[in-house]
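Lecture notes, continued. The same structure-token format from the folding unit now serves as the input rather than the output. Read the line below as a description of shape only.
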């Protein structure tokens, strides 16, 4: 079966992004870099925690990255949420409901696994309360989600 990987188009800061992302995520590495004839970086391949990515320095992009495509990080606990959120949002901007844009304009969702569990709680009231609490947040705070679900019964 062929390998499917994500390919990202950068203006001219591909290597800055690749170096940043491979420092943020464990078990990550740059796998290859190719260059234009003048020595500028053309493309790169890298892994983030074992997942393959490709990127190109394709020049100015009319629309840039949008939220229609994002990378989602499932976090085991609040400390992972805090680490990935705080690291990736630095120089970027927070959005709502676990979304952020990093300094390169790429959208990320930093989601604790506990959110998925609460949203699928057998109690509809608990699930709806957790959902309503999430809608009020930027970075997800697990304790606040649990408190909202517990208050609903």
């Amino acid at each position: 079966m062929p390998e499917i990987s994500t390919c990202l188009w950068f203006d001219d800061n591909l290597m800055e992004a690749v170096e940043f992302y491979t420092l943020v995520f464990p078990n990550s590495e740059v796998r290859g870099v190719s260059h234009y004839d003048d020595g500028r970086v053309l493309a790169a391949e890298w892994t983030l925690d074992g997942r393959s990515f490709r990127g190109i320095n394709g020049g100015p992009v009319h629309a840039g990255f949008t939220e229609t495509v994002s990378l989602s990080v499932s976090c085991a606990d609040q400390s992972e949420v805090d680490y990935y959120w705080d690291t990736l949002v630095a120089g970027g901007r927070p959005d709502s409901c676990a979304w952020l844009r990093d300094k390169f304009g790429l959208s990320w969702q930093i989601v604790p696994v506990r959110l998925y569990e609460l949203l699928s709680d057998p109690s509809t009231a608990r699930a709806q309360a957790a959902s309503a609490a999430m809608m009020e947040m930027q970075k997800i705070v697990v304790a606040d989600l649990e408190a909202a679900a517990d208050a609903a019964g």
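Point for the exam: Residues 51 and 116 are 22 Å apart (CA to CA).
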